[in-house]
Amino acid sequence: MISGSYIDFAVSWMLKSAEVWFFFTRRNLKDHERVSKRFPEG
Question: Which superkingdom heads the taxonomic lineage of this protein's source (predicted)?
Answer without folding.
Answer: Eukaryota
